[in-house]
């Protein structure tokens, strides 16, 4: 096991408080210095087949891209720290206390959830205008700060200026069918499908299928038009209005060529009715979560 030198002076980022999460590329930990909190991502050590330069280039891709992005719904990165031997890299980012999943679990008020959905769409619209696709949109990568502002995180899988991607990248419940059925696909359209799955989950608190593959019976029924997206909803509610069904059906269009783009969202009545709500201070669910936060 490679022994790394300690990168951070305690006075710079304070004390490590908790492990926030870990994944394929590394782990993220919470640090606090005074009243400031940071999310610090420590990347896994280089692969045996990589040179130091190849490792740095691969790991710094996310940081270099995020540095150029400036949008209220995109995570902000502050700096990158590289050990003197070049074998450990840590990325310092803004910290968010809540996951969007917490609001969905607490919330029966769809107006509040649609507020978050609109913020997600605003962030993705900005990315797509920069010709950037996220490629791993999922609830676990959507955070919320203590002002009710949604933030998109984890850009490891992102691609830029590339309308052709290869291979299975992302999380299976959120992946579009062409990822499994085609050698190459448009990653921008993959983001749209993932947005559709997120919206469906917001409304119904469940996924329509486990995987968008014909081996999955629920998806097979949907693909073969044996069941509509409306019929996937919970039987005890009537949340899927005609306008919403029309919109979500275009997000979850199995043909990527006819699946809508983010710039077409305002053409749909259901979407037009959602008000922009960044800097929301009146979310009942936010007040509930804030009241249960431990004091620093």
UniProtKB/TrEMBL annotation:
Protein name from the UniProt record: Protein kinase domain-containing protein
Gene Ontology molecular function: ATP binding; protein serine/threonine kinase activity
Residue ranges constituting the Protein kinase domain according to the UniProt record: 14-271
Keywords on record: ATP-binding, Kinase, Nucleotide-binding, Serine/threonine-protein kinase, Transferase
- InterPro entries registered for this protein in UniProt: Kinase-like_dom_sf, Prot_kinase_dom, Protein_kinase_ATP_BS, Ser/Thr_kinase_AS
Gene source species: Pachysolen tannophilus NRRL Y-2460
The keyword ATP-binding appears for this protein: yes
Q: Which SUPFAM superfamilies match?
A: Protein kinase-like (PK-like)
Q: Mark the transmembrane ranges.
A: none
Q: Which GO terms describe its cellular component?
A: nucleus
A Pfam family found in this protein is Pkinase
Family per record: Belongs to the protein kinase superfamily.
């Amino acid at each position: 096991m490679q022994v790394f030198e300690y990168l951070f002076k305690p006075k710079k980022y304070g004390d490590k408080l908790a492990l926030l999460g870990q994944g394929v590329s590394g782990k993220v930990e919470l640090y606090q210095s005074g009243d400031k909190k940071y999310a610090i991502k420590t990347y896994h050590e280089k692969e045996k087949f990589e040179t130091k330069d190849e490792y740095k280039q691969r790991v710094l891709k996310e940081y270099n891209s995020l540095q150029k992005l400036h949008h209220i719904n995109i995570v902000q990165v502050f700096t990158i720290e590289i050990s003197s031997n070049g074998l450990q890299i840590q990325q310092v980012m803004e910290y968010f206390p809540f996951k969007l999943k917490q609001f969905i679990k607490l919330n029966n008020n769809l107006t509040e959830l649609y507020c978050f959905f609109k913020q997600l769409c605003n962030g993705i619209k900005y990315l797509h205008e920069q010709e950037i696709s996220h490629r791993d949109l999922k609830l676990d990568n959507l955070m919320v700060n203590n002002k009710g502002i949604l933030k998109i995180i984890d850009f490891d899988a992102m691609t830029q200026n590339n309308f052709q991607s290869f291979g299975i990248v992302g999380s299976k419940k959120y992946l579009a069918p062409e990822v499994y059925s085609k050698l190459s696909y448009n990653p921008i359209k993959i983001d749209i499908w993932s947005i559709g799955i997120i919206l469906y989950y917001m409304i119904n608190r469940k996924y329509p299928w486990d995987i968008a593959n014909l081996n999955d019976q629920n998806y097979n029924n949907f693909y073969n038009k044996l069941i509509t997206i409306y019929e996937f909803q919970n039987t005890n509610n009537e949340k899927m209005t005609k306008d919403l069904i029309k919109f979500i059906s275009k997000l979850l269009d199995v043909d990527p060529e006819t699946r809508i783009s983010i710039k077409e969202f305002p053409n749909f009545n259901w979407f037009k009715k959602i008000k922009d709500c960044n800097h929301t201070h009146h979310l009942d669910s936010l007040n509930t979560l804030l009241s249960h936060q431990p004091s620093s």
